[in-house]
Amino acid sequence: MDLGLQGKSVIVTAASKGLGKATATAFAMEGAHVLISSRNAATLKEAVTNIRKETGNENVDYIVCDMKKAADIKALVEKAVNWNGTVDVLINNAGGPPAGSFLDMNDADWYHAFELNLLSFVRTIREVIPYMQKQQQGHIVNLASSSMKQSLDQLLLSNAIRPGVAGLTKSLAQEFGQDNILINAVGPGTIETDRILELNEIKAQNLGVPVEKLTKEAEHNIPMKRYGKPEEFANAIVFLASSANTYISGQSLLVDGGLVKAL
Question: Which residues form the domain of 109?
């Protein structure tokens, strides 16, 4: 299947590692012009070098961007437009908020989660929409969490904010469908990334059990009996953001091996 991504202008935020990097790599494999961002120039430079080497695609570049800063987001989109003339695909991603229970969280924690995991998406979408409207097409995918559908233990901030991403996605898909702009959200289940390993360590410490025991139990609870791979998650995003997807919009998809039981 030709995904029609050759030469397309793609932005992937928070893409110096983990699921963001896997997603950027998948787009580069399809011949897209991929602009990635994160807060760390050194890790971004290394990621670009790795992606170019792995895919053979030299049209991969980076810009430092703090997703909590509106000016950085504006500069991110401006660089993509100056490079490629437009933005065809926006993949919104940001690091997850810290774990903890309700009484652990103060106002600063709540504001941080809101700015990082919801307001940043609002800002990036607001910047790219005019270009997509002008060309009467575009794809936006908001990366969230399985907490869009089902609450996760010790991830209160995510449980509160991520459903907002699903609501934003649904609303914008309805508003901009007439412009042929398809907007979806994708949430990972248990994908083997540094973030998951970190959360496992925290949970194991809280429970007083070895992390290896916790990992085996987690795998047992997944119907497919294994953690997902970053490239499996990325493949779903690339499809939704490609020309192969012409009628799926406003959806919140989980890539979780069947883990979440919510409908």
Answer: 9-190+229-255
Q: Are residues 207 and 144 in the same domain?
A: no
Q: What's the domain count of the chain? A: 2
Q: What is the pLDDT of residues 161-176, one digit of tens each?
A: 999 999 999 999 999 9
Helix (H) or strand (E) holding 35: strand 33-38
Residues near 205 by beta carbon (within 8 Å), at least 6 away in sequence: none
For residue 210, what are the contacts with CB-CB under 8 A and spacing of at least 6?
Answer: 204
Q: Find the length of the chain.
A: 263
Q: In the structure encoding, which two tokens stand for residue 29, read together?
A: 């494999």
To the question of pTM greater than 0.85 for the whole model, the response is yes
The structure tokens 């904010």 sit at: 161
Strands 89-92, 138-143: parallel, antiparallel or unpaired by DSSP? parallel
Regarding whether 213 and 96 lie in a shared domain, the answer is: no
CB 214 within 8 A of CB 177: no
With the C-alpha atoms ordered 167, 171, 172, 174, is the resulting torsion angle positive or negative?
positive
CATH number of the domain where residue 165 is located: 3.40.50.720
pLDDT in tens, 110-126: 999 999 999 999 999 99
Judgement on whether residues 145 and 239 belong to the same structural domain of the protein: yes
| 171 shares a domain with 184 | yes
Residues 77, 128: contact at Cβ < 8 Å? yes
Q: Is the pLDDT of residue 206 over 90?
A: no
Helices (H), the chain: 18-29, 41-55, 70-84, 107-114, 120-135, 156-176, 194-207, 211-221, 230-240
The one-letter amino acid code at 36 reads I
43-99 pLDDT, tens per residue? 999 999 999 999 999 999 999 999 999 999 999 999 999 999 999 999 999 998 998
